[in-house]
Amino acid sequence: MQDVIKVHCFGCGSLNERGLQIKSHWAGPEELVCRWQPQPFHIGHPGVVYGGMIASVVDCHAMWTAMAAHCRDSGIEMDGTALPFAYVTGKLSVSYLKPAVIDQPLELRARVVDKGERRSTVECVVLQRGQECARAEVIAVRVQPLA
Ligand SMILES: CCCCC/C=C\C/C=C\C/C=C\C/C=C\CCCC(=O)SCCNC(=O)CCNC(=O)[C@H](O)C(C)(C)COP(=O)(O)OP(=O)(O)OC[C@H]1O[C@@H](n2cnc3c(N)ncnc32)[C@H](O)[C@@H]1OP(=O)(O)O
């Protein structure tokens, strides 16, 4: 989706050449997946992914999950034309369950589990080699399109 809707965000913006450039895709009727390979310098401790990086990737993937689900629910095409809204992070809560190693990709699986008028609650699990290394609850709030 981030190749179609281009933003400047450090985590997901295809317009940010120094950013993480994460990509999110539908993987089933409710779930979006993101696969991301940490770089050797994304460490907290040698060999272990810095938790803040995991939080950053989760943050963006959760926003795109909220955005994609809202587009689906509202019949809005994500075809590259400007969206009539944006989602921003209201709250991000991450539980780190196991260390993630630096030389293996992370797989994030997220879905909207509750939706208010403007708020979407997104749950996201972070897997590495099929094992859950983190899980998160993220609150995304729909706002006016950002300039
Ligand atoms: C305005 C932010 C500017 C920064 C934007 C930066 C990047 C975004 C760029 C492009 C977007 C494109 C793609 C998206 C992908 C990634 C985006 C990256 C994510 C970010 O990096 S983004 C930066 C960090 N983020 C902020 O910079 C937010 C600062 N903050 C505020 O701008 C306000 O605080 C706001 C708008 C959050 C709420 O303000 P408000 O007045 O509109 O809200 P209001 O009270 O009306 O609540 C409405 C409903 O949200 C619930 N709600 C509100 N706040 C909550 C909270 N904190 N916790 C739990 N629930 C909350 C209520 O309970 C109610 O829920 P319900 O709908 O169920 O009634």
From TrEMBL:
Its EC number is 3.1.2.2. It is found in: Cell projection, Ruffle membrane; Cytoplasm; Membrane. It catalyses: octanoyl-CoA + H2O = octanoate + CoA + H(+); (5Z,8Z,11Z,14Z)-eicosatetraenoyl-CoA + H2O = (5Z,8Z,11Z,14Z)-eicosatetraenoate + CoA + H(+); dodecanoyl-CoA + H2O = dodecanoate + CoA + H(+); (9Z)-octadecenoyl-CoA + H2O = (9Z)-octadecenoate + CoA + H(+). The keyword Lipid biosynthesis does not apply. Gene3D superfamilies: Hotdog Thioesterase (3.10.129.10). GO terms for molecular function: thiolester hydrolase activity. InterPro entries: HotDog_dom_sf (IPR029069), THEM4/THEM5_acyl-CoA_thioest (IPR052365), Thioestr_dom (IPR006683). GO terms for cellular component: cytoplasm; membrane. Its main location: membrane. Keywords: Apoptosis, Cell membrane, Cell projection, Cytoplasm, Fatty acid metabolism, Hydrolase, Lipid metabolism, Membrane, Transit peptide. Pfam families: 4HBT. Residues 47-131 form the Thioesterase domain. One of its GO terms (biological process) is fatty acid metabolic process. It is a peripheral membrane protein. Belongs to the THEM4/THEM5 thioesterase family. This is Acyl-coenzyme A thioesterase THEM4. It comes from Ramlibacter tataouinensis.
